[in-house]
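Reminder: ligand-aware prediction takes two inputs, not one.
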Amino acid sequence: MGIPLASESRLSSLNGRTPTIATLCSHSSLQIFHGARREGFPTLGICVGPPPKFYDAFPLARPDRFLSVANVKELPKATQELRDDGAVIIPHGSFVEYLGPEAFTTMDVPVFGNRAVLGWESDRRKERDWLESAGVTMPRLFEDPSEVRGPVIVKYYGAKGGKGFYLAKNREALEDFRPSGPYVVQEYVLGTRYYMHFFYSPIAEGGYRLRHGALELLGMDRRDEANIDELYKLGAQEELLKAGIRPTFVVTGNVPVILRESLLPRAFDIAARIVERSIDLFGGMVGPFCIEGIMTEDLEFKVFEISTRIVAGTNLFISGSPYSDFVEPGLSTGRRIAREIAHARAAGRLAEILS
Ligand code: ATP
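Here is what comes back for the chain with adenosine-5'-triphosphate:
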């Protein structure tokens, strides 16, 4: 038996009924509704204003019903309605960002996964404590700018899609940086980026075993990042700056990638360490998560970020990926989430996967 995350009273709205899978109409919602329907769950789309018309174009991924709110921040006012519906909320990146971490943490509606993870993910220093204490290599952090030797990246707190990040090729260039909020200065890692989509189930039997349950790899992508991905065409950052363009990392899309097969054991080892450590720190990071890092020419993988819920890159793999096809043909992360809820419900173990 694993670790209970949700109290009995939190889950009382689900007693004796089929849960309704609910999420905010954005980000990866099509995949989440599609996966839930395929597992036989009713679905509810939370939308701002009238139901978005684009769902009509995707009949297999359209939620059964909509709950319309004037503003995402007002969602907690609909707590009773959501409980009456037997809703289980599936968090995704935009959902947490728009609702706000405070409301997300306190809302009295069952949420898929462990909401305690938020406090560890949203603060870059706590995130680093978690990952480094798990034995994961991260880009070097510079507390003292005078120690900077090579190129660095200055990053603001929170998931801002890389907006406003600053690149400095050396210590002198860093002196020109004028901060507009809390930030960290990191070594700029040269290499190839990989965004690896894992799923941790504390209740799974078989598979890649951890202390409780098992780990799955469901896909992998690389992000297209606005003007920075085109940097090579101009030759150097100075060329962009001369043109009055500040390099940004704003995500504009995703492309599928795979890792050299010989590097997979390392990928699983890193993911396993991060999950095992999360169990010690806050009861475990349950469900989908994404390890975001850079493979250097020495084949060292440096993790710069972890996203602790479904990431938009999984939208590439609605009908399976080169990895999930070896778990079950055609398995998407959205469907895997619904499957986890179905299994936990059948086994009377919902408290271990909902919070
Ligand atoms: P999101 O939450 O949307 O993932 P974010 O604002 O938290 O974005 P990061 O994911 O940490 O930002 O970084 C954004 C991008 O900046 C990365 O996708 C990567 O391209 C680049 N990047 C981040 N850290 C480094 C680093 N240490 N070295 C090189 N590039 C980096």
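The first helix runs from residue 8 to 11. The longest strand covers residues 214-225. We will return to this case in the review session.
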